[in-house]
Amino acid sequence: MSTSISDFQNPIDPDKVTTTPGLLPYPHTVGSPAFAPTKQGVIRSTALKVMEEQCDMQMQQIKEQITLLAKQAESLRDRIEISKMIYQSAMGFQPIVGHVYHLYARTEGEFVLSMIGPDEWGRKVPFTFYAASAKLLSDHTWQIVREAQ
To answer: Within a 10 A sphere around the Cβ of 52, how many other Cβ atoms?
Structure first.
């Protein structure tokens, strides 16, 4: 009795057989790795929570950087203002970078830059009032080191 391959009938229901087992979304043999279906809602909520945490942390860092930049901008603006005031004042000498000089007012709006500090004059200060002491920085802006009280 000879049987050919064309006479073979598979005892498994044809609806339960596939020609592309590698594309199945589940394991198809006994040796395949086990898997358990996941709840996509849990995965999504966990991912969203982690994402929100990371974004909040990065937003906080950006806010801190903005605060720092605002302080730096304010400091620079103050240096520009005092620098303009000093460069418009009378000065009888060439200021040296890194030294501290003192700004006085003779009259309203008329300022004088001096090498002599407010505590070094003795009995009488020859100016109307002391405005500030400032240090000449290397970029030729001035930084206030002491303000009038």
So the answer is: 10
- The span from the CA of 130 to the CA of 134, in Å, is 12
- Give residue for tokens 């994402």: 51
Q: Are 101 and 95 in contact (CB under 8 A)?
A: yes
| Sign, Cα dihedral of 83, 91, 101, 103 | negative
Write the DSSP symbol of residue 113.
Answer: E
pLDDT at 36: 67
Sign of CA dihedral 49, 53, 58, 64: positive
Residue 25: pLDDT band with limits 50, 70, 90? confident
Q: Are 144 and 76 in contact (CB under 8 A)?
A: no
